[in-house]
Structure prediction request, 454 residues.
Amino acid sequence: MKKLISLFLLLAMAFPAALAVTEGEIEDAPDVNISIAIQTPATGYYLPDPSYFESEYEKAPDWADSKIYVPAAYIEEAEMYLGTSNPFLTPGEIERAEILKNEYASGAKTGDGESILNITQDVALAVYTVDPADFGGESFYHILPATNLTDEELLNLIDAYALMGHEFIPENLTYKNTLRGGGEEMSRHMMEEEYHRLHALAEMIIYGYLDEKITVDKLFISLDTRYHKRMSEFMLLPYRSLTDEELVSLLISMGYEDESDKYDFVAIEKQARSALYELLKLPLSMQRESIFTDGSYIIIPCFENGAHDYDTLDQEGAQAHKAHGASFTFTDADGYQISNWITFDTKTGAILAASSMPYLNEAQQAEKAQKMETQPTYTVTQKDIDNAIRYAESIFDGETLLWHVQERETQTNWGECKEIKALTKDGYWLSVFVSTEDGSVRGLSLAATKAVVE
Prediction:
């Protein structure tokens, strides 16, 4: 199974993967979720963002200035750095390190014989040799625990440097060459161009288009969770654009493999495209984003006005339906990316849910927010609602429906919307979303009732 990579959720990747049960939705399951932090600075800028690292403690631990090692009664509950990733030694540790360096040089003290140089499994403390050309001029990268370093651990650092013919200088530790105590699960954020290639390569592996098995050293490091705020893995990414080989190595480390012998991906895509075309009148030329397999879906009961009835769900219990489906995108006439997905009951083939909603990227969201600052507050009118209803009913062959305006606004990727719902003759709750910014229609969705699958 694929390993959990739980990173900053600035942009989640929608890879083909197993799915988990949620209330009326399908999401990536916890053991296969891949959420990659995306950065979009100036082209060619692949250095870490210093704003994600603390240059000083938010709250210094009690042992920060101690000239002797302060043991923790329980490692998991030990005082740890409360900042994001404080990439340096404490004043007390630096003072002890200087004393130990002299004792190491005189032969009075040595390390315990277990080298921490370039280790990649169950890491609490480690030093890595890296290519300065790949790491912004840095020759070493350090992973340090959140707990107070013991004398033995300081000696291990000194010894690792000695093995490389260098002197350990604690003051040289920076956010460019050190991770301390978890908090950051990769040495830098991925760039958008890397994300797109990672997505494409993951698909190629799963669909059986890429047979080559590639391994690149030191990209994927397993951590001892006790010392890194329960973080289990770390990606040591160079400060340049990752090669395709490196991206494939990451995916293989995450557990991605050929699944073409398990699922008929062509049949699933054909089923999804046909249904979205016939059901929501979406274009045939949509670009496939991902195919879901081996997932689960829960149908949430609703009141007569379409509001979710969670009390009944709690009383009757949740019956999960095994599901599969696919997602697609296309660009509309206004230049916006439209995100579309559909899921099916694997046993019966019935449609469980479908959606077509605009997706705004980071730049478009910023541009829209700036524009809204200069516009007066808008109130959705009855005319807006009537226009939305006519649009929705036209898609469903002019079927006249009983519509219910939901009391609360719904937050979508486009922004805040007024949701209007109706129950179709086929047993689906149809929702149309009206923007509270200008009254325009900004999405449609369908959700099955129990009658559809029983």
Residues 91-106 form the longest helix (16 residues). The chain has three domains: 5-43+186-254, 54-180, 265-453. Residues 6 and 332 are 32 Å apart (CA to CA). The two ends are 32 Å apart (CA to CA).
